[in-house]
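Hi R.,

Here's the chain you asked about this morning:
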Amino acid sequence: MAKYQVLVADSVIEYLDKLSKSERERIIKRLKLLEENPQTVGEPRGKFWVLKVGTAGYRLAYRIIESEKIVRVTAIEQRKSRKYQEFYR
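And here is the predicted structure, written out as tokens:
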């Protein structure tokens, strides 16, 4: 049974829907790891955490609400995109 509930923003779902099936499955597989212990899967970046996904260079930003055992995935971006520098702000 999962220890944390993972909530994914609509914008992240829309982004995932545009990816190939294999990329989408790879990201979803990593997202499922957040259910057990989000602190060991990602890296802290100021007010949020970052989950790195595979050689394609996807990064997902998430926040942990420990008191409610919730992980909120708020953004996704590919490392090589122009938006990447803004991703960490």
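One quick note: The chain has a mean pLDDT of 89.

Cheers,
M.
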